[in-house]
Predict the structure.
Amino acid sequence: VEAFAYGLGGLVFGNPVLWAVLMLARAGGSTMHALAVGTTALGVYEAVHEGRRSRLLRNYLLAVGLHAVWNGGLVTLGFALFGESLGTQSPAAAAVSFTYVGLLSLVSFCGLLILSRRLGRELRREAAAGVPLSPPLAGAGG
């Protein structure tokens, strides 16, 4: 819903550059958030099912780092594109920033595909071995 609202805002203001930037940011942001959540969830899974507690911290820090790099790219892109009001607009900086955010979007999407394939293989392997998908609930009667 948030991405749709941003896209609609870009169309309402009638600025095709603004619309393109908003769509790139929202599409990349959606995949980045999915990748960050999936990375953290994989860390939780490995901590609970495999006893690898350090994986939770590692994966969480990886997700936070990815989010920080993404936000930094968007801030850079915003300053590059809308620096006119600050008297610092540079077409070269805008092109570099736009390329950076686009490549980061692509990396996030590819990372999401790799993560989902890895998790799918792991779940299929464990299902074939008869491992339950989640641990039993504490206090649940049996």
Summary: Helices lie at 2-12, 16-50, 53-82, 91-128.
